[in-house]
Every structure is written in C-alpha cells, then in structure tokens.
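Chain A, query sequence.
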Amino acid sequence: MHTYDESQTLVLEGSGLRVALNRSDLTVRVESEDAVWETVGGAAGFRPASGKAAAGAIPLSAASDKLFSPIVSGTFSGVLIEAGPFVYEDCVYEETLALSILLNTHNGELVFEVREPSHEVEGIDEIVWPGAFRFSGGASDYTAVPAMQGYLIPGDWSEPVLRYHQGIVFGRDAYMPWWGQRKEGHGYVAIIDTPNDSRISVEHLPGVHTLAEAVWLHSLGRFEGVRRLRFRFAQGMDYVAMAKAYRNYVRSLGKLRTLAHKQAVNPKLDRLKGTAIVHTGIHTCIAPTSHYYDHGDSGKNDFAVPFEERASELAELNRLYGGKLYVHVDGWGLRGYDNLHPDVLPPSPKGGGWEGMRMLQNTCREQNILFAIHDNYRDFYHDAASYSPELTLLDRGGHREFSDYWAGGAHGLLCASLSKGYVERNYDRLKDNGIEPDGTYIDVFAVVPGDECYDPRHPMTRTECLAYRASCFEEVRSRGMIVSSEEPADWAVPHLDLVHHAPHALTPGPGGGRAIGVTAPLFSLVYHDAIVVPWSLGRGAWGIPEQDLGWLHGLLNAGTPYLSIRPEELELGIVRTMARLHELVGFMEMIRHEYVDGDWRRQRTVFADGTVVEVDFDEDLFRIELPNGECITEIG
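Chain A, predicted structure.
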C-alpha cells in the first residue's frame, strides 16, 4: 500500500487500485485495471434541515477549510478529511464534517465513511459522500438497481427512471442496500454497510447519464456513529456477480438464514415446498370516509362470508386441486379487514365468532391445509379500544400521521416500540380460545422503511424501529407459526418465511404499468433459498409488467403460485406446474440468470441442482430442464 501527495491530489495505491482524491473539490478518481471511475464534481455535499437558508445541497467544495490526516488501521490505509465551515450563496454554515476514504490492503475494497464529528452536527438532513460516478454508455453498459425484484438500466435506455420514495432503503425503491454499474466489461458493486438511515439516489436521463449514489439521512436530527459505503471493483463483474457479492457479504455477517435453517427451527416450513397460496376473507366493513367506500351501493360496504362457508369452500378446493395448500385469511377480526387494529378481538360476529373461527381452523387441520391469518401492528385505528394519540408516532415537525384511506377509516401509526405487547396479548387470547394458527401475516412491517418517533415518552430511531418489528416476527416464530409480511425488505428476510409478493417495479406503478428498465431477478439471485415468494398468474397482475404473464415470472423465479378459491381448469394446470417446480427447487439457491442471445425478453435461470428454466415473454413460452433429463414445456 502506498499513500502519497501529488500536488493537489492525495493518492492511495494497492491491491490493483489507484485512488486519487482531489484536495480542492473532494472528487475521487478510481483506476481499476483498464477502467476509470470518477465522481461527478459537486455531487458530494450536504442538505441543510428545513428552514436553513439554502434550498438545495451545499457541495463539499464550499468548505473554507479542509484538513487531511493519514489513517492506518489494521488492513486499511487512507485519509481522514475534516471539512468546514461552509460558505455558499452568501451564507455561512458552521458545521464541520468528518469524512474518510480507506483502501483495504488485503482485498482492494474501497470504503467511504461519514464519521461522527468531534462536536454534534445540527441542522443537516442529508449528507452525500462520495457522490455518484460519471456514467453513460451503450446497450451493453448498465446500472443494476435492487428496486423490488430488481432491474437493469441499460446505458442507452430511452426512458427516464421513476423512483417511488426517493430511494429510501428497505422500501420498494431498494429492497436491498446495494447497487452496481458495468461499463466496457468492467464493473463495481456498492454495498451500504450502515443502511438503516440511508437512501439510494438513482437518476437516469436518456442520452445524458445514469447517476447512482448513497445519501446518508439524519437519525432523530443527529449524525452519530459512522456511516459506511463499500465498493468492490473487478473486470468482468456483471449483475449476477454483483448480486452474489452481496449475498456473500450477508453471509459474512451471519444474516443469511436460509429456509433450511428456518425449517430446523420450525418443521412446518417443509410443508411450504410446492404449496399453492390461497387468499380469502371473512368480513369487510368500509368506513364512509374510506377511499374504498361505495356511495352508490351501501350493501358493498359491510358484508361477510361465514367461517363455516369458507371451510366448505376450502375442503372442496382441496379435493379439486389435490396438492398442498396454505390459506391466508383476511377480515377475521371483530369488524373485519383493516379495522380496529390492533384491538381486533373477538373474531367477527358476522363471520361466526370464536366458534366459527375454530371450525375453520379445525377443517384446515383435517384437510392438511396450513391455516394463517392477517394481522397489523402499525396502523392504529382511532376507534380501536386502546387508541390514544400519545401512543402514535410523532414526527420531527411535531405532527402525528393521519389517514382514512383504508377500509377502517381514521387511523394513525402505532409507535413500534409498543407493538410487541399487543402481539403477545392478542396471540395469548387466541390460544386461550382454542385458536393457534399455523402462520401469521403482519402487514406492512416488511415493506415500509423504519419509522422515527420524536415523542419523548417513547423516542425511537429507525434502527430501533426495525429491531422492534423483528421482535414481533420472532414472537410469532417462537409460537411455532410461519412468519410472513408484505414484501421482503432485506433487514426482515432473516425473520420471515413467506411474503405476499416480491414482483417488479413498474411505471407509473407499483401496481401496474410498464417495467422500469429491464426486469432482472436481483432479489432472487441473493435470497431465493431464504424466503418463499408467491407469484400472481395473470397478465399485468400487481407488480407484473403489463405485457407479461405473471406465472412466467413465477416459473423463472421458481416461486410458489397463488390459487383462487374457485379456480378454472386452466388455472389449476398452471398452478400444478409452478408448484411442482417449487417443490423441486424452491428451497435452493438461484445460481445464475442470463438473457438468451442478448434478448431482454428471453430469460434463463439456473438453480443449485442444475435445473434450468427458460421463458420467452413475447411468445408466452417456457421450458424447464430437470437434472434427470426431463423437459417440461406444457402446463398441467
């Protein structure tokens, strides 16, 4: 490792990398073999909190003083930068930021840090360091983005890229905290080592550039501890290698809990192999203020199907289908679906109360059907028995969330620090009344990024919020239940067995429209053997590009199928094919993905046992090649 000055440049060299830091504007140039990556001038900087003079970001180059100190720490060597105060647009910002750039002397990993300063930094909402690399290119160059299942943005992509929530990590913009870029046969993967207070900013302007960078967010208004971003550069690195590098990183942290590991704790998971997922409901009651309220037909606003009737339908479905079933029951609570949470007991009287729910559970057991229920410990309805605004989230501005969009009408957000007590209480009461589900779905916890709470009675950082949510999942697991939630945000995967879906990001979406970029199973490449993902069947279904059949994506990802409670024969054939594939490889690693002959619409996956799945989304065709030589090209 060599560290030295070259006029206005500080240089780090070692392990095949040459990294040059410009002393004046703090831009970074990385030379890796024959590739050069340079950060955009002015990209690194910070954004003052609301109410400060500057409306936009202040570049690091605006620092009136910059001090540089060498760092030698074990296998790392680098530079500490102390920058500030800042003079920008006739305003002075007294903050001093502590940043570092480190090169691993062993493996060539390049690390950027935002370090805790010697004094508290106040009045900053976001910090960007090191900023985006300049990037533009042709059809063979691309940016890999782990938004929902994942997509690639080719360098010549003709459409701008839409982001749903400014790239907040652990939301739909970034299930996983990494991204990567490849140009002229060289690539890098960037891994956010401290993801809980971060977002991934991606900007694709057709014919101009594709910029991707980490943005560090305040935590309860402060920047404490260290924020860290890791880069790995390599010739030949493609999106599969990027995903596998991240998988290895997760494994190195001890967080890659595969389905095999989870099954050792709960043997019921074996019954998820090749299982069709059935969603059904009992009671719907829609408040007049809800978005879903039907003002033209009041009969559509409050109706129920008794537990007993659902039990009969499931028994008939079991006879007709003949395969494994997992049933998820919505609207079983006191006033039905999305009502009164978290105070949802006793079960819906219109559905048949305790006796009816026990009857449904017992029928499922007799039929060997896994029985699971919907639940929610974030939405806190104003007419819930225990509702108090003092128990809800308080934001930085002193406001409490209010919504009446969902069926139950007016609600706030329960602070996650209080959630587990409700979980324990509700499942104790269910057990006391003879209800012990095989599984529980805790809504929204694994699709909404961590919350902050500024209420001094129960303050909560995003990191603490995710830990509280995880404790709720683990409480369910400790009771022998299969654990599920809405979507598979990375932090939650170790705590989940099953999700509602993990489909593709769409525009204007996420529910429907065209695919953003080129669909790529980045999530499956990392986590296929760690969580069960069901897939909708229809063309243009929720999260499925409007021209594509959902079940083809399901086959490509070897996911488990959804099944209607009253299916047609064609649906049964599709589901049987998907279920058979999942039975064989659903708990195995997806080891490879490729675009056949460079065609984005023809894709191929390979699983750990050698099973190959190829689909053609334009021709609605598929081919499954099993290790024993069997080839499947027809449904049924």
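The two ends are 61 Å apart (CA to CA). The first strand starts at residue 2 and ends at 6.
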